[in-house]
Amino acid sequence: MLPVFCFVLFAFSANAQSVIRDSEIEQDLRIISEPIFSAAGLNPSQVKIVVLNDDMVNAFVAGGQNLFLYTGLILETKNVDQLAGVIAHESGHMAGGHLVRMRGMSERASIENIVATVLGVAVGVGAGDAQAGIATAMGGGEYARRTMLRNSRVLESSADQAGMAALNRAGYSLQGMADFLEHLSSEEVLPEMQRSPYVLTHPLSRERMQTVQSYVATHPKGKDYPQEWQEYFRRIQAKILAFTAPAQALRKYADDNSVSGKYARAIAKYRTGKISEALALLSELQKSEPRNGFFMELQGQILFEQGRIAESITAYRKAVALQPKAGLMHLSLAQALLQDEKKIPTEALEQLIAARDNGEGDASQVYRNLAIAYGRMGQEGMAKLALAEEALLKGDSGFAIEQARRAEPLLKDDPTSLQRARDIQSAALRVKRDKR
């Protein structure tokens, strides 16, 4: 069973990037992004933010209102101002409809499905040409490189304008967007193969730079970003670097006794096997911020991976109590509780339902664990229904139909669940038809 804890990588193919799932990073990115989405005319609740573990400096939108941020880009930005500028630019693409339209994508498709589908065409987003990305996925690299630069500056300029207008409406400074574009502009003098993917998929130009700089100069300065957002940004960067490059994090944060510095060292020491030192640093952090559920979540992860299941459950319970809306925490607690196969998993079931109801309704692992919990409780119909839900999210239409049909006669006394089984069959059949 693949655990979902405070920081987990999900890889979907040998060549694909991995998705990072982390309660704290996702929450903090949403806090930073939602005012920008609203100002751009988007419904924040409809936008998914996905972090991809890749050191390339890149970001894109695809598969509907899905914003993909690479860890390389997050680590490259210097402050929350610059990160907000990138988010504003990408929100301009979403608001302007500059998206790759994914034929046959289910409305309830999981992030796993979206990532598996869009990574091949991501390079085409900046060009507004899905064929560019398809060519890349099929090995047509030279065609893709020629195509994705063609006429793309029009869309990029449009996204700049929309992003700056959104920041202006939100009342925040535009300087971060200008600074980040200025930073990237230095790469245009490099040979094409040495440029970051962001420069290739978001081509810059002298005219674009002048337009952005002129907009900044002629519009109100805007208020500074909240200091707590700057702290969120520092912790996001510290956490990403410590999990993905612990040795580098230990060097960078060696003498940094800020919260983000200690946080980075605690994670890096845990990642390098120095468990007692990691837990000691984490204890210091918990004393400084006793209401921080994310510190408790990390403690739960470390203890779980050390086989100290009972202690991890205690830590996860405290984390959930402090962050009751964090669906991933509920899922982590449920998975720890399910380690004891002798216990009736009533509490685990409650936690899985809480995970589903708090943002994890499209996470296939929720339904896999629900199937386990229902199975242990002897509720075979609900177990099969959960397996059908999981299969539908993963795009396995045949298995979804099979399990939903098997669930039907077992759910005859539960009208709501029975109807869901029928709905799954209808949705799966639509997906199968669309794939033809």
Question: What's the short story on this structure?
Answer:
This protein has 436 residues and is mainly α. It contains 22 helices and 5 strands. It is globular.
Key features?
22 helices; Zincin-like; disordered N terminus; mainly alpha; globular
Report on this structure:
It is a single chain. It contains 22 helices and 5 strands. It is mainly alpha-helical and 436 residues long. The protein has a domain at 8-224: Zincin-like. A 5-stranded mixed beta sheet has the order 1-2-3-5-4, sandwiched between helices. It is globular and about 65 Å long.
What are the low-pLDDT stretches, counting only 5+ consecutive residues below 50? 1-5, 10-16, 100-108, 118-151
Give the SSE string.
Answer: EEHEEEHHHHHHHHHHHHHHHHHHHHH
Tell me the distance between the termini: 33 Å
Query: In DSSP terms, counting alpha (H) and pi (I) runs of 4 or more, how many helices?
Result: 22
Sheet with most strands:
5 strands, mixed
Structural class: mainly alpha
**What level of helicity do the residues show?**
55-70%
Using DSSP, what is the number of strands? 5
- Level-1 CATH class name of one domain: Alpha Beta
Under CATH, the homologous superfamily of one domain reads Metalloproteases ("zincins"), catalytic domain
CATH architecture of one domain: 2-Layer Sandwich
Shape: globular
Helix/strand layout:
Blueprint: E1 8-11, E2 18-21, H1 23-39, E3 48-53, E4 59-62, E5 66-70, H2 71-76, H3 80-96, H4 111-118, H5 130-137, H6 141-149, H7 152-170, H8 175-185, H9 197-201, H10 206-218, H11 227-244, H12 246-252, H13 259-271, H14 275-288, H15 293-305, H16 309-322, H17 327-337, H18 346-360, H19 364-376, H20 380-394, H21 397-407, H22 415-435
Parallel strand pairs: 3-5
Antiparallel strand pairs: 1-2, 2-3, 4-5
Helix pairs in contact: 1-3, 1-7, 1-11, 3-7, 3-8, 5-6, 7-10, 8-10, 11-12, 11-13, 12-13, 13-14, 14-15, 15-16, 16-17, 17-18, 18-19, 19-20, 20-21, 20-22, 21-22
